[in-house]
Amino acid sequence: MSPLAHLFALPVRAYRLIGSPWVGHGCRFQPTCSAYALEALQRHGAFRGGWLTLRRIARCHPWGGQGFDPVPQCGSDCDDEEKHRD
Question: CA dist 61 to 28, 75, 76, Å?
């Protein structure tokens, strides 16, 4: 994960530590938005991962979707090491 992606992940980690226990476990999606955010930042970096995270959070409302929504795989913008990472 790039240094900027680590910086973007700090609020997500803080939310998981402090805010998540107060909100409860009523997430509409699997994986949860915070897990999705950390995986997107790790897999795609700060900018694309941040954009994917914002899109996911915007879909999390009463009229939005639900169910299994994984982080998309790397496309042509990822280098070879990221494409083959498990």
Answer: 9, 28, 31
Q: What percentage of the chain carries pLDDT values higher than 90? A: 53
**Count, residues in the chain:** 86
Instruction: For residues 2 and 30, give the distance between their C-alpha atoms in angstroms, rounded to a whole number.
Output: 25
Residue with tokens 């409860």: 24
Q: Which residue has the higher pLDDT, 7 or 65?
A: 7
Mean pLDDT on 15-40: 88
- List the domain boundaries for the chain: 26-74
